[in-house]
Inverse folding.
């Protein structure tokens, strides 16, 4: 104990779905045109939680005021076109 202030942030895995839900609810209710970029989108496939891609898709399809930009270095995973030649 030094008396110096400290900060730590943690996220419980069981709460991740609720966190995503609250983020998308905020975006939807903002009544502003928003551009939301996700870099290295293909890493979602490596998440230990199953169904993350489906969860995101279920929210994204109803976001009329939010424009999504997906980028990454593995184009075949983003476009769903299979493995590049």
């Amino acid at each position: 104990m030094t008396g110096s202030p400290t900060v730590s942030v943690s996220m419980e895995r069981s709460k991740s779905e609720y966190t995503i839900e609250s983020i998308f609810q905020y975006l939807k209710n903002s009544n502003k045109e928003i551009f939301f970029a996700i870099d290295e989108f293909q890493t979602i496939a490596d998440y230990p939680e199953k169904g993350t891609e489906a969860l995101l898709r279920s929210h994204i399809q109803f976001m009329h005021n939010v424009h999504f930009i997906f980028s990454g270095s593995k184009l075949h995973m983003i476009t769903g076109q299979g493995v590049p030649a």
